[in-house]
Amino acid sequence: MGPPCSSFVVLNAKKCQRNAQNNYQGDLKYPVVQLGNLLATAAAFLMAVACMRGVEVVFENPPSSTIWKFPIVKQVLDSFVQRSTCTPRCAWSREPWGKRMLKRFKFACTGTWISDIRRKCRRPVQRHLRLTCRVWRNGKFRFTGRGLALKKSAAYPDALGKAIVNAWRKSTTSCPIACSAHASSPACMEICPGARNSLTYKRPAGTKKMRKPLPASDSLPAWLQPSPACTSASSSQPDWLQPKAIVARKLTSSTTGSASGAPSWLNPAPSSCS
């Protein structure tokens, strides 16, 4: 996750007024600061919930951003982050030199696998596309950001996104130390084969699952022991539970051919045609 850094970077530092005196809360009357504080707090909350559920989290912002000193974010990162690394955007871009933007990303991750994306820029600064420019304002030269270039630089190059995913997938196959801390969680058991294999016993091929024999009655606890009333003979049972003998009835035929024991409404009426 990458909360917006517009209120935490140097370009807007004069208006936001984030410093150690106000605990990097900034000017709370400035709408940009209010939105930045809200989004940073929400990101810290979601990161804490994800970590408690055993989900790997990556937190990203520029290295010079003051969000790393924001109280709630710093508290969450100090509790869950295991490794941090920086990488420049130009090292992953495929644009020609002169159009690559020199912007550094800092990734704080709950796993150690984030170190696989570490890169260095081996080109001079003059061969990059500048994100800032100098303007003459109120009799002084001031630095300001180029809006379109800054907005474009916030997007990760495709190669960087693939590298992050591949580094995470590689870590799940080997179940690193970072993931073993959450190996007992359902989320890690679903995505981490190493944790699943280390905690699950596999029966050898060709063997059958043996059923456990039932325990003897004398080894059962007292509350499972049959009561004496249940073990007594059937004669001690009440009459309504006693089985009754089936008596076969002998049917006799009458002159009408009906059973003599049948009720009157079942006997055929005498025919008047006879």
Please name the defining characteristics of this protein.
two-stranded antiparallel ribbon, 9 helices, 5 strands, 3-stranded antiparallel sheet, alpha+beta, 274 residues, elongated
Fold topology:
Elements (H helix, E strand, L loop, with lengths): L12 H4 L14 H22 L5 E4 L9 H10 L2 E6 L15 E6 L22 E6 L2 E6 L1 H7 L4 H17 L2 H4 L5 H6 L1 H7 L28 H4 L43
Antiparallel strand pairs: 1-3, 2-3, 4-5
Helix pairs in contact: 2-3
Walkthrough of the structure:
With 274 residues, this protein is an alpha+beta fold. The chain has a domain at 10-174. 30% of the residues lie in helices and 10% in strands. The chain has 9 helices and 5 strands. It has helices at 13-16, 31-52, 71-80, 147-153, 158-174, 177-180, 186-191, 193-199, 228-231, and strands spanning 58-61, 83-88, 104-109, 132-137, 140-145. The strands form 2 sheets. Strands 1-3-2 form a 3-stranded antiparallel β-sheet, with no helix packed on it. Strands 4-5 form a two-stranded antiparallel ribbon. The chain is elongated. 19% of the residues are buried. Residues 175-201 and 252-257 have low confidence and may be disordered.
